[in-house]
């Protein structure tokens, strides 16, 4: 019934309900890989936020790592053959 | 090809964006990759090239997500900003200051990680974070596919 005080301050035009926040939290939880949160339906909001932050950080690290590897590979591979291989694998 | 991948773009968070299908993102990224390579692969250091590839990856990801998302707009702004350019168009949108002065450390951390997350309402932040994570994961998978294919090609020769 009553929105959390810290949230209703940001409400602006409309009041943000707890249900809306819970709904968005569950959507965020669905995006995160299952291994991080387990199959538990009732995960606390703090846990979801924590895992989301840690997941984003790990994805950033993977992007850096893959960029390094790609730059090494591109210096040794013919781009056209790599492109052909990629397109083939994506269309399959 | 586009119709078959259309169901991949259906997300519960918004209307499907036909630009953001896996083959489209892949082709866009491959084109960007070939541009990075053409800009003097022999003369540049590997770390410079890696930074260029990473920038291209984020740019392709943001461009494919489209201007609907605040994170993609913020990311493109950050990438396209060149130091020393003084011209600034007057923005029609009034930028809000950070509404919460650090109430919840987890929320603050999320705002820092999601591009453009500093000036959003909390609900918007959660929505944008979910979309950002989804696109980021897809981009990482795509790059992993490319690395695997390129390594495979290398091992054959």
What kind of oligomer do you see?
heterodimer
Question: For the CA atoms, what is the radius of gyration of chain B?
Answer: 18 Å
Strand % of chain B is under 5%
Whole-Å distance between the termini of chain B?
Answer: 31 Å
Q: What does the radius of gyration of chain A come to?
A: 21 Å
Secondary-structure-based class of chain B equals: mainly alpha
**Number of helical segments of chain B?**
5
Give the percentage of residues in beta strands of chain A: under 5%
Q: What does the average pLDDT of chain A come to?
A: 77
Helicity of chain A, in percent? over 70%
The major pleated sheet of chain B works out as: none
The SSE string of chain B, one letter per element, is HHHHH
Number of strands of chain B: 0
Order of helices and strands of chain A: HHHHH
What value does the average pLDDT of chain B take? 76
Please report the number of helical segments of chain A.
5
The count of β-strands of chain A is: 0
User: Strand count, sense and closure of the main sheet of chain A?
Assistant: none
* Biggest interface, chains and residue tallies: A-B, 53 and 59 residues
Organism (chain B): Zingiber officinale (Ginger)
Keywords (chain B): Transcription, Transcription regulation
Protein name (chain B): IBH1-like N-terminal domain-containing protein
GO molecular function (chain A): protein dimerization activity
Description:
Chain A: One of its GO terms (molecular function) is protein dimerization activity. Chain A: One of its GO terms (biological process) is regulation of DNA-templated transcription. Chain A: Residues 5-59 form the BHLH domain. Chain A: InterPro entries: bHLH_dom, PRE. The complex is a heterodimer of chains A (92) and B (157). With 92 residues, chain A is mostly helical. Chain A has helices at residues 5-8, 18-31, 34-37, 45-76, 79-91. Chain A is built from 5 helices and no strands. Chain A is elongated, with a radius of gyration of 21 Å. Residues 1-6 and 8-13 of chain A have low confidence and may be disordered. Chain B is an all-alpha fold and 157 residues long. At the A-B interface, helix 2, helix 4 and helix 5 of A face helix 1, helix 2, helix 4 and helix 5 of B.
């Amino acid at each position: 019934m009553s929105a959390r005080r810290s949230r209703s301050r940001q409400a602006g035009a409309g009041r943000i309900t707890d249900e809306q926040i819970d709904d968005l939290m569950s959507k965020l939880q669905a995006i995160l890989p299952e291994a991080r949160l387990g199959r538990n339906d009732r995960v606390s909001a703090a846990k979801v936020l924590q895992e989301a932050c840690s997941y984003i950080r790990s994805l950033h690290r993977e992007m850096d790592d893959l960029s390094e590897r790609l730059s090494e590979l591109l210096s040794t591979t013919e781009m056209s053959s790599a492109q052909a291989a990629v397109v083939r694998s994506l269309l399959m | 090809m586009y119709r078959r991948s259309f169901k991949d773009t259906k997300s519960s968070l918004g209307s499907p964006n036909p630009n953001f299908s896996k083959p489209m993102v892949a082709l866009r990224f491959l084109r960007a990759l070939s541009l990075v390579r053409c800009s003097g692969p022999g003369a540049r250091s590997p770390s410079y090239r890696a930074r260029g590839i990473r920038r291209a990856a984020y740019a392709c990801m943001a461009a494919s997500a489209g201007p609907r998302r605040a994170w993609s707009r913020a990311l493109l702004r950050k990438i396209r900003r060149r130091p020393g350019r003084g011209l600034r168009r007057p923005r029609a949108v009034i930028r809000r200051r950070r509404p919460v002065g650090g109430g919840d450390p987890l929320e603050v951390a999320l705002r820092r990680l999601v591009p453009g997350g500093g000036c959003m309402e909390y609900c918007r932040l959660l929505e944008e974070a979910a979309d950002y994570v989804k696109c980021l994961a897809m981009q990482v998978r795509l790059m992993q596919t490319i690395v695997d294919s390129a390594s495979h090609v290398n091992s054959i020769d």
